[in-house]
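Hey team,

Filing this mostly as a record. A colleague (T.K.) asked me to run one chain through the structure pipeline before their review meeting, and I want the input and output archived in the tracker in case anyone asks later how it was produced. No errors, nothing strange. Just documentation.

Input sequence:
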Amino acid sequence: MARRGLRRLGRRSPGALLSGDRRPSRPCGGLAGGRGRGQGAPGARRRCRRHGDAAADRGRSRAGSRCRRIAAPTSFRIRGTSGPAGNAPELRRSTMNAEPRNTGQDDATSAEGDLIRSAFSGLQAFAERIRKLETAVDAIADAGGDTAQAATRKLKRQIRSFEPSVTMIGQVKAGKTTLVNALAGWPGLLPADINPWTSVVTSLHLDPATRSGSGKAKFRFFDEDEWDRLLNRGGRVGELAARAGAHKELEKVRRQLEEMREKSRQRLGKKFELLMGQEHEYGYVDQELVQRYVCLGDDLGGNTSADQKQGRFADITKSADLYLGQPDLPHRLCIRDTPGVNDTFMIREQITVNAIRESRLCVVVLSAHQTLSTVDMALIRLISNIRSREVIIFVNRIDELNDPVRETEEIRTSIVATLKALNGPTDAEIIFGSAFWAVHALSQVYRDLGKASSKALLEWAEHKLRSGEVPGTVHETIWKISGIPALCEAISSRIDSGEGAEFEERIVRSARNIATSIEASRQVMSKRMEGDAVTPVAPADIGREVDAIARRSLDLLDAEMEKLISGLDGRLTGARRSFLGRATASLIRHLEDFGDHEIWTYDPAGLRLLLSSAYRVFTAKAMNTSEKIFAAAAADIRTLYVGAFQLSEDAATIEAPVVQNPPPPVILGSTIALDVKGNWWTNWWRRRRSYQSYAEEYSALIDAEIEPFLVSLRADHAEVYAQSARQVLKDFIDAQRAHLLDLANQTEIGVDTLRERAEAVATGRRDALSETVVFLSELKPRSEWRAAE
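Output structure:
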């Protein structure tokens, strides 16, 4: 049935515009202007001229019942906005706040929900385990006293705020934003025609507990230091050009910055300086609001209100956080859309580096027409520092391939070969698909698919149907072969075994420890009420014992981490010295053999490999050291439970806290002067001087380029990890201190008071705690998230 429906769809797609047809063109409607480019964008206009309104009307009129248009037109309403920008009430087209005109839109929305729900079904098991874990925490709270309830409230806050995240990176014009819209189930939400000048990371915080259609937004602006670095020094490109003596390139950067400064002044006027470092928050989300902060749009030549509002703040917007309801997701999820890494000033590169560090999982989006090659070295450098299992490669826009079945295999082979040759993550999963097909399947509107895309869709569907992979209706089939469900499944699997598993293990251990403290308290109460001798324990004495454990454990951790960081410094310095020695020796040999008539280059891959190896040695040792010290602290506390309160070993089973994974050294993928090819080095090379001067200047230049790597690996990675490990250990000991002090108090209060407390706890609660302890003991979170591969 799906096969017949697809064939009908292929025959009924709009054909090419006849050469003699001069009817005025208009943008394709329905899905943010056609192929994921914003409505009214040049790409959308060209597409309409190619297909034509008449052909589109014929295609729509012949569409069968299985391919009919279901989505209703978006309604218009007047909304008053009094946000930070001080806008007056205005007529706004609202995609998220619009009231539907008929039930057709409800049907389409229901279909969208079914598709999203099925795509992320792999998260269902994880979400169910987390819900059961939250129920277990509630049972522990009901069975415990004030101390246990305070501890469980903290766990509940952690459970309810846990939000796994995935960062989308890739080539410009690879369709990242359209793909993000499809993953979120909101076709057209984010503008897909983001101007290459913008540097905004847009984070979609999707929450199934929030009703569909509701949302809020927060936009952060660059602070004065960041903006000053861009305008006065030309950003990272300006620094590189100045060091390499590329005066022509530096002048080009300065001209572009002057244009950017002038546009910002025209858009913002006197408010420009006041906005630096500020935030704007809104209680709603719609396309116009997003475009105002994210998409620059056209130059300031128009006079309309829309022209003045679109992209008004985009020059200075650093990040956008959109909080959206998506009840069809099994669990909360954050999807970060980055604008790419090959921007004019390399601002985006650093912002993308930070975005990757904030997410455990990374999806690399490539265009089927421009898959990985040596041109994409910046992208490959970034992902080469991430574990292979945490990288997913999505090859988008296969709808534009002439022969998708054959060409996708060629593309796969090419990607694997390129990653292998350039030391990339060769084991990363590769998925092929089309976000263009996906957004059409979500909205069930196919009138602007186009002849070429329909042909590719049919061929790809036939290929999938032959293998028995695609059952269901036409909408379900198109959704499945778009590759989005496969991508969602891969994301769900990585969360379940990665970031989610780590979080689950952390909560399980904490919950078990709280349950253990309650059981210990019950043993002490039972002994006293039965007349057994229980030696009173002064809370002050217990406090001193715990303080001694904390001091001993934290001091040991600090000392060991200091040694490891010192060792890292030594390895990094050795790597820098080794690289500079080899590079300058190679330079002198080149000068002796060829003189200064031929420009010499040197691949910095060896440097990155040495620095990465040094950092990974540190992380392996730091995790191992933390685990041992955490375990020793837990053993000391267990001994204190048993010795001070005469408990059995089984009644004082205290588990050490979870050792966190260190952040990947993504900073090593940042561009340095040695990565820049072309004419950049010409002026530097042609400055006449002795061979020794060449070597000395070159060594000084590269040394200055390497320094930020070394500083970041120490300050932003090693020291941050050491501080994080210290905080985890401190929080663990503080929590145990509270339980031990509560237990000490129970050895001093009267027996009658203990009886009253025991009677207040219903038998059902005691049984529930026992069942909860059994449930928690059976939970075995997956361990793939650990750094060791």
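Quick notes for T.K.: Residues 2-110 form one domain. The chain has a mean pLDDT of 77.
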